[in-house]
Amino acid sequence: MRSPDSRPSATLADHAADQLAFIRDTMVRAGRFTAVSGAGTMITGVVGLTAALVAPRAESSASWLITWLLAAAVAVPVSLVAVARKARRSGQSLRAGPARTFALAFAPSLAAGALLTAALVLAGAWQLLPGAWLVCYGAAVVSGGAFSVRTVPVFGTVLVILGAATLFVPVAAHAWLLGAGFGVAHLFFGFFIARYHGG
Fold this sequence. Notes:
single chain; elongated; mainly alpha; 0% strand
């Protein structure tokens, strides 16, 4: 014969389980996305530095743009693969929790950068592209970095500052600032992340 208070005990256990699940889910969502890859960031820096050296030799604005778009086409998959490998090593999911929050914060500024690129090219405002790229990409890194290790938003802030400077300096300095942002800054912060934040 079942004890008269077995049902209330079961209800209490179910309630406690629900509360624990809620707490666990909240903690996961509030966690930090630590799978930003220092090694991947450094490889991206090498790609960016190469583009900064090659692009100024382009024979036309269209060729210059293609050089940078090709660099992005190489850098993005490299970064994604490096992040996936680091996440797998650390057991961090890329589909939920901090990774999802990071991606949702990161994406809007990148989308804005893509839209600005198309608009500026159509308007023939080629000289504004380097600054727009650095500012939008830096803003994406700052936004996503708010949910990652402290080094990441600092990195993004450096990119935004370089981009802001690029918008107001002579065109002759653009290659140097693009190299500083997409090359040197990536190498420096990538090394720092790899050294102090697990690869």
